[in-house]
């Protein structure tokens, strides 16, 4: 994460013992055998492992992307509907749009804990498709709304049910029955896949604009239904197939039983792949969990980082750009289509940075570039009177901020890999606390009535961009300190920080993986190297 040299050190200590010598005929996790650039599978990966990863991508990644696409399509459709006739039809001339977003976010936050509890009791193969089905119907009913209050109620329900989506899909912890990228993929595979997963939602932002523009020009008024109402009907139709797809391809919990599209040998390989990164399955949520979560730096430092990102994200978005275009008398199709470039920039930067981060084993360069583009963007928007080309440029480069979402989550997967329960709580906290901060920030700094300039919002966004940049060295310092401790603990025959095991259990874990002999021969040299 923090540079190629650190990744190589980690590979020597943790990954090297996991070879054919220790696994017999079983196909096993590949080592990093070359610094040569790779796009998808790193050099040295066996054919068996490549086939397994392809299956994971076709099943898990496909479902994650499809369902997240549908969710973000609805999130952005409320903005596209507003500028495409909803405002005038329902007489929304105050901050009703802000409240539609806020009520969704309140439902989303309130639904987090109930959703996580249900996911521990009901198999994801049934729970997630059922949530998709209910979500689709609440979205559909929005097309019948005649006033803002009805939309508020439905948006709350949509957010409440959608609470199963982002944490559940991005946090595939098998024992808790979440569908999570972080349980099925290794550290060097997470960045680009998290980027693809998040990019699928951003792509929905683009398609929402294109769909609304197409509806406005073709079927607005068809069957006596206004174009903005058709948008929610189409959302429903797009989501319905996800229910069937989910029932077919959502996997069973990894450590409990196999799935129809995965052989038992492949399931065992999945577990061994995670052992190579010292990834632990979930244990029991006991009284020590709160002490472990609140007593470590991960929760405080990473949640603060994610919240700062949310503050930066709130100001220059596709919705604030659309409000500027509407105020500047652009046509309805243009007001829907032009903001999609923001989303295109987000997708391109996310995929490129994810590939780069997996290859380099470092995310620092990408984060630094994101911070720089946000400072430039917010500065141009604060200045404002620079002409339309400068405003367009400012909005478009602001799209890089969305690339920070998967980066922070991937960073969290790595530093919390030794304690799966903590990892579950911290990733859930990132989303819920960050969104809670974004809710009040949206109401205070970017109220709809201040469109199109958002005088306070862009200044607050610039301050948040500077704070976000200053927080990166803090995260790096804590991460490097943890890496030094992990290396010392491994040399001493203990598992990494955050596992909650004592020395004897740590040695047993290492012996199970066949690595204690290697460490015995190298311990003295490594200790001397660290001391220097």
Keywords summarizing the entry:
disordered N terminus, mainly alpha, single chain, 532 residues, Growth Hormone, Chain: A, globular
What's the arrangement of secondary structure elements?
Blueprint: H1 4-15, H2 20-23, H3 47-90, H4 96-110, H5 112-121, H6 124-141, H7 148-162, H8 166-170, H9 181-184, H10 187-218, H11 227-249, H12 264-276, H13 288-294, H14 297-314, H15 318-327, H16 332-337, H17 340-360, H18 364-383, H19 388-397, H20 404-415, H21 420-445, H22 455-491, H23 503-512, H24 516-531
Helix pairs in contact: 3-10, 3-11, 3-15, 4-7, 4-21, 6-7, 6-11, 10-11, 10-17, 10-20, 14-20, 14-21, 14-22, 18-19, 18-22, 22-24
Please describe what this structure looks like.
By secondary structure, the chain is mostly helical. It has a single domain (47-250, 264-274, 288-487), classed as Growth Hormone, Chain: A (Up-down Bundle), CATH 1.20.1250.20. The chain has 24 helices and no strands. It has helices at residues 4-15, 20-23, 47-90, 96-110, 112-121, 124-141, 148-162, 166-170, 181-184, 187-218, 227-249, 264-276, 288-294, 297-314, 318-327, 332-337, 340-360, 364-383, 388-397, 404-415, 420-445, 455-491, 503-512, 516-531. Helix 6 (124-141) packs antiparallel against helix 7 (148-162) and helix 18 (364-383) packs antiparallel against helix 22.
